[in-house]
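Quick one, tokens below. Sequence please?
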């Protein structure tokens, strides 16, 4: 299986930046597409971004386009989410996940990390 561990969450002021990291181990990291999801209290789990195996293809939810950037480093077996111009609405627990195919659907992701809290103060 694939084990995923997120880090980099914390408290940041609105308009600030934060970079999340997700370290992978187990099965070959490069074999999976990697995605980021988030979930706020009382809210449904929401897709944020996904990156292809090659790193050349990405897709973002409309609310974060132009502000967030997903990237991956296969040598380090790590995927990142650079978050800029953060808003209070971005406050949530952020999860990284691995899928065998390009998708924005949570049900298609086989492995999940434990999550990291991101809190944006206003």
């Amino acid at each position: 299986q694939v084990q995923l561990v997120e880090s980099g969450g914390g408290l940041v002021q609105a308009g600030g930046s934060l970079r999340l990291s997700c370290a992978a181990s187990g099965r070959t990291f490069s074999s999976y597409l990697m995605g980021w999801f988030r979930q706020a209290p009382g809210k449904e789990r929401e897709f944020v971004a996904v990156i292809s195996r090659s790193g050349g293809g990405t897709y973002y939810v409309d609310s974060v386009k132009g502000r967030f950037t997903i990237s991956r480093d296969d040598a380090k077996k790590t995927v990142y989410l650079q978050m800029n111009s953060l808003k209070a609405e971005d406050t949530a627990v952020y999860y990284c996940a691995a899928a065998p195919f390009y998708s924005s659907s949570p049900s298609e992701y086989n492995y999940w990390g434990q999550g990291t809290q991101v809190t944006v103060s206003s």
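The chain has no helices and eleven strands. The mean pLDDT is 94.
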